[in-house]
Amino acid sequence: MNRMEWTRRAGGLLLSIAMMLTGFGCISSRSDVTYGAKGPAVPSSTLRQIKCGQTSKAWLLGVMGEPTRAARTSANTEVLTYEYTKTVDSDLNFFIFFDADNRREERTVHVFEVTDGIVTKHWKER
Question: Among 29, 31, 52, 71, which is disulfide-ready with 92 (CB 3.0 to 4.6 Å)?
Fold first, then answer.
């Protein structure tokens, strides 16, 4: 095999490999975001409007909707819990050699103590 023929074959092989990598898509990725039943978490701008000792239960329900859970702790006090879940599914593929899947779940919980129809305490759990 002479030098010219070897160069032609090597060039053809390199061209075939390049076409195969680009033709089949050597890198692909995707990311999907889903939310739980309550939808995305309430924004902090809304939470800043809630003033303990001033904000009414009616306003809280009107803005945030029905709670995920409600529990009465005494005749005039109840605890309203709002749970928000965000799930991110990611997938990364590099040709046929590497495949990485990742699932991340973020959970945010806001709890409000309401006494006599007024929010008296608020805290956030993770």
Answer: 29
Residue 117 class from Cβ within 10 Å (0-12 exposed, 13-18 middle, 19+ buried)?
Answer: exposed
Residue with tokens 């074959």, as numbered in its chain: 9
d(CA 113, CA 106): 23
pTM higher than the cut 0.90: no
Tokens of residue 78, six digits: 């109840």
Region of residue 25 (phi > 0: left; psi between -120 and 50: alpha; otherwise: beta):
left
CA distance 52 to 30: 43
Q: Where are the domains of the chain?
A: 3-125
* Rounded CA separation 34/88 (Å): 7
> Any bridge partners for residue 98, and if so which?
94
Q: 24-83, pLDDT tens digit by residue?
A: 556 677 778 888 877 788 888 999 999 999 999 999 999 999 999 999 998 899 999 999
Give the number of other CB atoms < 10 A from CB of residue 102. Answer: 10
